[in-house]
Amino acid sequence: MSVPGAHLVEHGVVGKDHVFETPTKAVKTMEDMVTWEKSEAYNEYLGFILALNEAVQGKAANSKYPASQTLLNTVAMLNIFDQWLTEIPPTDQPQRFGNKSFRDWHGRLLERSEDELKKVLPKDLHRAIPELSPYLCEGFGNATRIDYGTGHEMAFIMFLCCLFKIGAYQSDDKVAAVNKVFSRYMEFIRRLQLVYRMEPAGSHGVWSLDDYQFVPFVWGSAQL
């Protein structure tokens, strides 16, 4: 049985005449959700998660696996984001949740994301940055509400999916995408939540596995 969307990981190439577009929000109502769940994009997203889930079965985080230079560049970018967190310490304020310094950190992310992506991607793929950057920036929480949730996690997964789809990541990068990139993302995002005391976005309490994350439970169970 084939995995829907799994071809994204196997054949991620775009032609030179492909026009990249800045993503815009399309799901705004419950009716839009029905359309989304029947869309090609939904199948690609789900298929991507399932394809990487299959790739990491029985693969411990410290196991040996190939990793392309672009993938290693992505980890280096996350390290830089982590460094900004040290450079922008939390503000001394009485609120239990939502430290305002997160807005400064997020503002720097918006300001520098395209330049950082230029360091990650080979030059011939720099034209994809306007489409990639919004997914990346959305993957670290909301600066207005100072919260983070599974929707932000989903944006980062879509960012990784796009990297495979445009050929920035290779098929052999599937395990490393989980065990190196997503693992580093999780490590950093936990620190981001703790330092800036971010609220969980759209928490469903006992109806969800966790207030902040979902995908680690899928890929983590596959590793085990």
Automatic annotation (TrEMBL):
Q: Mind telling me which Pfam families this protein's record contains?
A: PTPA (PF03095)
Q: Where in the cell is it found?
A: Cytoplasm
Return the SUPFAM superfamilies for the record: PTPA-like
Catalysed reaction(s)?
[protein]-peptidylproline (omega=180) = [protein]-peptidylproline (omega=0)
Q: Which InterPro entries match?
A: Phstyr_phstse_ac, PTPA_sf
The alphabetized list of GO BP terms reads: mitotic spindle organization
Q: Does the keyword Isomerase apply?
A: yes
Q: Which domain of life is it from?
A: Eukaryota
User: Where does it sit, as one GO cellular component term?
Assistant: cytoplasm
Asked if Cytoplasm is a keyword of the record, the answer is yes
Full protein name: Serine/threonine-protein phosphatase 2A activator
Task: Tell me which species this is from.
Answer: Fopius arisanus
Q: What phylogenetic lineage does the species belong to?
A: Eukaryota, Metazoa, Ecdysozoa, Arthropoda, Hexapoda
Q: Which gene encodes it?
A: LOC105273544
